[in-house]
Write a structure and sequence with these properties.
Blueprint (H helix, E strand, L loop, with lengths): L1 E5 L2 E12 L3 H4 L11 E2 L8 E13 L3 E22 L6 E24 L3 E14 L2 E5 L2 E5 L2 E16 L3 E10 L2 E3 L2 E3 L2 E12 L4 E8 L7 E6 L4 E6 L5 E8 L4 H20 L6
Parallel strand pairs: 3-6
Antiparallel strand pairs: 1-2, 2-4, 4-5, 5-6, 6-7, 7-10, 8-9, 10-11, 11-14, 12-13, 13-16, 14-15, 15-18, 16-17
């Protein structure tokens, strides 16, 4: 529901129910022993997690700027997260996803879009919220695996800057920051990363050279600290290090003329189909 306060201001009241189904790897019970320190496997008994999101939004627009402020409350049931435990019989480490507990997120999200002059476009998003994950306990292999209730205030931010320069040059920078956040049996430390790209056109935009650098500071990584009465574990995952890609594109032919010909062909096909006994 929305209510127009003025020509440039609007109030919105939203309700959304979201469903997140477990993906194939989370359901596959095959035991992965590629990591010598832990055996991981999926859980075919997983059920979907459901989120009910209630939000009150305020939208304000200016000539070259807009601001969206959203206050939300989002309870989630049957949260899917991995739990880690030590086997009672062999003492080895195991990891598997479970529907651990219910969670609640309550916070404020701000999204701003700004056009500064003719050369700079900024999109900024900041999300500040309080997160709570309830406690749980499971009976696994003749033992009880427990997890205490956890909560903390956390926030994340993302900014995208698009810079348009003379001589058909454009530059884009994208930065992201995630603060410390709690997970089942532990927490994840803060993380910061940045991507960058530059594009240059030649010969009336027929030749385009683009250079993209992913993870400029080589800082994109996934860390976690987990533990219980029987173990303490630190995990560091990194999919790839800093990468730089060069792309050279040559555009030829008359795409405008091709588009018109395609439209005319579609019109002719529709006319032929309308001459039949029924319309689709």
């Amino acid at each position: 529901m929305s209510y127009q306060l003025t020509q440039t201001q609007q109030l919105q009241l939203n309700y959304t129910r979201r469903l997140r189904r477990p993906w194939g790897g989370e359901l596959n019970s095959f035991r992965n022993t590629s990591d010598a320190s832990i055996t991981s496997f999926g859980n075919p008994l997983l059920t979907p997690e459901y989120s009910n999101s209630f939000s009150l939004n305020y939208l304000k627009q200016w000539d070259q700027h807009s601001l969206l402020v959203s206050a939300y409350y989002r309870p989630t049931s049957d949260v899917i997260q991995r739990i880690t435990y030590r086997g009672a019989a062999d003492g080895k480490m195991y990891s598997t996803p479970m529907n651990v507990a219910n969670s609640t997120s309550t916070g404020v999200e701000l999204t701003g879009k700004n056009k500064i002059g003719r050369i700079l476009d900024l999109t900024t998003n900041v999300n500040l919220y309080y997160y709570k994950l309830n406690d749980f306990n499971f009976d696994i292999e003749d033992q009880t695996v427990k997890g205490a209730s956890q909560d903390n205030f956390t926030w994340n931010a993302r900014i995208i800057a698009q810079l348009t320069l003379p001589w058909d040059i454009s530059v884009q920078l994208s930065g992201r920051y995630n603060s410390r956040r709690v997970i089942t049996q532990g927490h994840r430390p803060s993380q910061i990363s940045m991507d960058a790209g530059i594009k240059k056109s030649f010969f009336n935009r027929k030749l385009v050279l683009s250079i993209n650098c992913r993870d400029v500071f080589n800082s994109r990584k996934w860390e976690s600290y987990t533990g219980s009465d029987t173990f303490t574990r630190y995990t560091l995952n990194k999919r790839r290090s800093r990468t730089v890609n060069f792309n050279l594109t040559w555009n030829f032919g008359n795409s405008q003329g091709q588009k018109k010909r395609d439209e005319q062909t579609n019109d002719n096909d529709e006319e032929e189909m309308s001459g039949g006994g029924y319309d689709m």
